[in-house]
């Protein structure tokens, strides 16, 4: 819990400081007098003066602001009017407002590049048994297939570095409604064949848990080997042992741990557990063992369970890049995430995607804690993802956001006159209402996820 809270506060602190520093730095470069640089809102906890700017750390760390000299807010001495924000040319005001979101996007590039330079341990793109009835099964994907490269129809083949990389490519293709070509070999890299994963048949604009089940890639390949057994459980009572490799059940070969788990869960007929004849390999010898799972209620459906850890750890690969390649990958991935975020927001607005995709502070905090526990490279990647989201969100043309101010400047540039005070007030009220609704939906989604409702 402490790790989660500290990681969340660190995430907020870094992203807010970078965002507001973007505004601050460009404002100073344009000759605008900056009165206050605030991190957070509410009661000041810490303040110090540097030159003509007061720096403040406040109690509520959910945002920040840079207060500039402006005739519309305070009286300005005649000798300082040329340093007021509202007196600056349109191009400079636009640059100052845009600098915050662009700083977040620039930070994401650097963080993703740093994550690539450090290197991350990820599961090798070797597939487990596809889920029954899924698109992966339809495409004739099999347990042990190693996905070497992927391509959209008519596109160039690109190497698939890991299971995470494969899922990212599948997600992008699914959201675009395009099939994905996969080039495969066996686990040892022998042979080659090409399959087409028909993601265009998914018939959904949301890549949520239900859609992922329909795609059916499942977990990476894991050998059907038993781990720790719970004393007194069905596996222990039957005589199974840690390290047993399962070769077959009821005479049917078991390809991987995913298939083994499915056979165990499905060992129920008319509400009664079914005895299974396992053929296992132990210390070089093969033996047959009869196993009867116990029943558990899984969301209203009876499932079999043997009280043992099923599956060996998947094979891992280190994904690491050099300085130039890492930076290029950081730039490319930031662009991809940004465009994907914009498309998802657009689809939510027109009803083509569910608002369940919105996440709030509770989800961010939980993800921050998990990424910190996995290591620095994973946390940097997570921080980059949130930084992209913050940058894109602030560029939306909503009053109260930077994008709203840029919308005003666009109007001013086209018409030659600024937006009237009356319309500014109306748009501000509308923008506040929209933001309150978005924050409420995001918080509701957070709570629903914690309660298992999403």
Key structural traits:
alpha+beta; 454 residues; Pdz3 Domain; 3 domains; 44% helix; 18 strands; four-stranded antiparallel β-sheet
Give the arrangement of secondary structure elements.
Blueprint: H1 2-29, E1 34-50, E2 53-68, H2 90-118, E3 120-123, H3 135-138, E4 146-151, E5 158-159, H4 163-176, E6 180-185, E7 193-197, H5 209-215, E8 226-229, H6 234-238, E9 245-249, E10 252-253, H7 257-265, E11 268-269, E12 272-273, E13 276-282, E14 285-291, E15 294-298, E16 301-305, E17 308-310, E18 316-319, H8 323-349, H9 361-374, H10 376-394, H11 402-415, H12 421-450
Helix pairs in contact: 1-2, 1-9, 2-8, 2-10, 2-11, 8-10, 9-10
Walk me through the structure:
The chain has 454 residues and is α+β, with helices and mostly antiparallel strands. It has three domains: 89-119 and 322-454, no CATH class; 135-215, PDZ domain (Pdz3 Domain); 226-310, Roll (Pdz3 Domain), CATH 2.30.42. It is 44% helix and 22% strand. It is built from twelve helices and 18 strands. It has helices at 2-29, 90-118, 135-138, 163-176, 209-215, 234-238, 257-265, 323-349, 361-374, 376-394, 402-415, 421-450, and strands at 34-50, 53-68, 120-123, 146-151, 158-159, 180-185, 193-197, 226-229, 245-249, 252-253, 268-269, 272-273, 276-282, 285-291, 294-298, 301-305, 308-310, 316-319. A four-stranded antiparallel sheet has the order 5-4-6-7. Strands 10-9-13-14 form a four-stranded antiparallel sheet. It has a two-stranded antiparallel sheet with strand order 1-2. A hairpin with a 2-residue loop joins strand 11 (268-269) and strand 12. The longest helix is centred in the C-terminal third of the chain and has 30 residues, at 421-450. The protein is elongated, with a radius of gyration of 27 Å. The model has no long low-confidence stretch (mean pLDDT 86). InterPro entries: PDZ, PDZ_6, PDZ_sf, Pept_M50_Zn, Peptidase_M50. Its main location: membrane.
């Amino acid at each position: 819990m402490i790790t989660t809270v500290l990681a969340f506060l660190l995430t907020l602190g870094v992203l807010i400081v970078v965002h507001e520093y973007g505004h601050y730095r460009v404002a100073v470069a344009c000759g605008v007098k900056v009165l206050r640089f605030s991190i957070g809102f509410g009661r000041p906890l810490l303040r110090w003066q540097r030159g003509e700017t007061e720096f403040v750390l406040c109690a509520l760390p959910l945002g920040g602001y840079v207060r500039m000299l402006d005739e519309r807010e305070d009286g300005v001495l005649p000798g300082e009017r040329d340093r007021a924000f509202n007196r600056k040319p349109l191009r400079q005001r636009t640059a100052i407002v845009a600098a915050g979101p662009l700083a977040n996007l620039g930070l994401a590039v650097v963080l993703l590049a740093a994550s690539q330079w450090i290197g991350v341990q990820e599961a090798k793109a070797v597939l487990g048994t596809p889920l029954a009835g899924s698109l992966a099964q339809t495409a004739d994907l099999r347990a042990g297939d190693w996905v070497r490269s992927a391509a959209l129809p008519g596109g160039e083949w690109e190497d698939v570095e890991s299971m995470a990389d494969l899922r990212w490519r599948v997600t992008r293709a699914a959201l675009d409604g395009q099939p994905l070509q996969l080039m495969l070999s066996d686990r040892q890299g022998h042979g080659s064949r090409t399959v087409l994963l028909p993601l265009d048949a998914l018939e959904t604009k949301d890549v949520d848990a239900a859609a992922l089940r329909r795609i059916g890639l499942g977990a990476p390949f894991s050998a059907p080997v038993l781990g720790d057994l719970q004393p007194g459980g069905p596996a222990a009572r039957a005589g199974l042992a840690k390290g047993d490799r399962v070769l077959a059940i009821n005479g049917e070969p078991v390809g991987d741990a995913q298939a083994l788990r499915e056979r165990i869960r499905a060992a129920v007929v008319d509400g009664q557990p079914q005895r299974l004849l396992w053929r296992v390999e132990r210390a070089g010898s093969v033996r047959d063992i009869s196993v009867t799972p116990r029943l558990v209620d899984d969301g209203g459906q009876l499932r079999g369970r043997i009280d043992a850890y099923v599956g060996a750890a998947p094979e891992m690969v280190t994904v690491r890049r050099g300085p130039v390649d890492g930076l290029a990958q950081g730039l490319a991935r930031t662009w991809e995430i940004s465009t994907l975020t914009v498309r998802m927001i657009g689809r939510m607005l027109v009803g083509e995607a569910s608002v369940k995709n919105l996440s709030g502070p509770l989800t961010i905090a939980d993800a921050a804690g998990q990424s910190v526990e996995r290591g620095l490279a994973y946390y940097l990647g997570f921080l980059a993802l949130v930084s992209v989201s913050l940058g894109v969100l602030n560029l939306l043309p909503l009053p109260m956001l930077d994008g709203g101010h840029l919308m005003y400047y666009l109007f001013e540039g086209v018409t030659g006159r600024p937006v009237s005070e009356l319309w500014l007030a109306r748009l501000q009220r509308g923008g506040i209402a929209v933001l309150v609704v978005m924050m409420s939906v995001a918080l509701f989604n957070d709570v629903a996820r914690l309660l298992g409702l999403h």
